[in-house]
Amino acid sequence: MGTESDFQEPLDIAERWLGEGRQVAIATVVETWGSAPRPVGSHLVIDAEGNFEGSVSGGCVEGAVISEAADVIGSGKARLLEFGVADETAWRVGLSCGGRISVYVERLG
Fold this sequence. Notes:
Elements: H1 10-19, E1 24-33, E2 43-47, E3 52-54, H2 62-75, E4 79-84, H3 90-93, E5 100-108
Antiparallel strand pairs: 1-2, 1-5, 2-3, 4-5
């Protein structure tokens, strides 16, 4: 996983990172279908240096979400990411087992 204790909630970590002056984005699972491993409402927080905590997919799409979060932090423009078997990115990011997941990424602070 990321760099902090597994016992801290991602939202608590985001609040602390913001207090430290870090630029932070949060990714939230907003929709799932099929075999998505994390429920709606799951969070992944990412800072501008690429540090992260939490999970939106149990490892299937985290790399792609972290990459997009860097762009969201830089631009300030939120975006909705969609991954699934019907999407050509499914094989690249590891959702080949089936299912779909939608993740909303936005900058905090």
